[in-house]
Design brief:
single chain, about 80 residues, mainly alpha, 1 helix
């Protein structure tokens, strides 16, 4: 029968483990910061692009409205003068 040896966790081993864990968490934190900065940049670029598209669409609707008003005005004038 095999008896498992019990490992002892000395203060030194626990300190080593804590250091490795701290280093690992530091790496994860740095990666998250990097991803966050990249995401902020992409969001800003997307907002700028959408603003341009929305402005262009707004101008098209403005032109359509002016065209419809001009056509209606022309029909009214033609009706009463024609």
């Amino acid at each position: 029968m095999h008896v498992m040896a019990r490992e002892t966790w000395t203060d030194q081993r626990l300190d080593d483990l804590a250091k490795r864990m701290d280093a690992g968490f530091s790496e994860v934190k740095e990666e998250l910061r990097s991803n966050r900065a990249e995401l902020k940049g992409e969001i800003a670029a997307t907002r700028a692009e959408l603003k341009g598209d929305i402005d262009a669409l707004s101008r098209k609707f403005d032109r359509l409205t002016i065209t419809l008003i001009a056509a209606l005005f022309g029909m009214v004038i033609t009706r009463y003068l024609g």
